[in-house]
Amino acid sequence: SAFSNAGFALFSDNLVSFKGSWIVNITISMLVILGGLGFTVIINLYNYYITQKDKSILLTTKIAIKYSFILLILGTVVTLFFEYKNESTLLNLTFFEKIGASFFQSMSTRTAGFNTVSISSLRESTALFYIFLMFVGASPGSTGGGIKTTTIGVLFLGVRSILGGLEDVEVGTKRISWELFYKAIAIVVISIFYISIILFLLVIIESKQNFFDLLFEVVSAYGTVGLSRDLTPLLHDSSKLLLILTMFVGRVGSLTIALFLSKNLIKTKKYKYPEENILIG
User: Fold this and answer.
1) Phi and psi of 195, rounded to 5°?
2) Other C-beta atoms within 10 Å of 36: how many?
3) What's the rounded Cα separation, in Å, for the pair 236 and 240?
4) Mean pLDDT throughout 217-238?
5) Could you report the per-residue pLDDT of 4-27, keeping only the tens digit for each?
6) Stretch 204-218: mean pLDDT
7) At 258, is the pLDDT very low, low, confident or very high (cuts 50, 70, 90)?
8) Neighbouring C-alpha atoms within 13 Å toward the C-beta of 145
9) What is the reported pTM?
10) Are 9 and 107 in contact (CB under 8 A)?
11) How many Å apart are CA 55 and CA 18, to the nearest integer?
């Protein structure tokens, strides 16, 4: 369940009873991280360091590991900072147990869906950052969902290149095509558009439910994370069907589905219209 980033546990409180156990936290975390990094990354590292079949580490591997690490640390710091004095989550733990619980939840929120603290008891500031982590998700070719760490990485690198006035998207001694940057933008835009539509429908169907909790639920489904602020059992069947659809779209990939639906509309033209600039920003 951990390696597959499923987040299913046979305990009634998920893994809350084990939030003070370093053995459980570390073991589960390592399995989740490995599954979330993706098979491409694992095989590349294995062939580079063990069998030495690969002569270099792929750029995909570097970006996936780098941004996974950055998000993991950010999530840990945010959780520790905002939940430090929250009596429903971290207050009653020792300092090192607080760090362990913060690390575990940061790791799990992006991909797996396990929890060692009550998600419904989180402060909204923490839950809002978790929405971002769930939206990003794991790495490509992994057992996790989300728009993927490499997508965020390419977006950041592209924006940095634009602001720096660079002709190419540069990463160390390598460069990434602008076409890849445009694909990353398309993934984010399509994902936000889809989430907005599902959220709009849920707000209509579940008019008595909290908007923020509904947003958390939709993004959790889209990232195939599985975390909930105790809202899922209260939803109507039609809302659950929408969430099931959202899990499917999130797992297959929004860009994949969009390209599949529009494949007959894509035509190669042998001409170009005159170019004209418009004001933006």
Assistant:
1) -60, -40
2) 28
3) 6
4) 95
5) 999 999 998 999 999 888 899 999
6) 97
7) low
8) 27
9) 0.92
10) no
11) 42
Q: What is the DSSP string of 16-53?
A: GGGTT-HHHHHHHHHHHHHHHH-HHHHHHHHHHHTS--
Place of tokens 């640390």: 73
Determine whether 200 is exposed, middle or buried from the number of CB atoms within 10 Å of its CB (0-12, 13-18, 19+): exposed
Q: Length of the chain, please? A: 281
Where are the strands (E) in the chain, listed by range?
169-171, 174-176
Tell me which DSSP letter residue 119 carries. Answer: G
State the angle between helix axes of 254-262 and 178-205 in degrees (0 to 180), rounded to the nearest 10.
100
Q: For 19, how many CA atoms within 13 A lie in the half-sphere containing its CB?
A: 24
Neighbouring residues of 149: CB distance < 8 A, sequence distance ≥ 6: 63, 64, 67, 68, 71, 136, 137, 138, 139
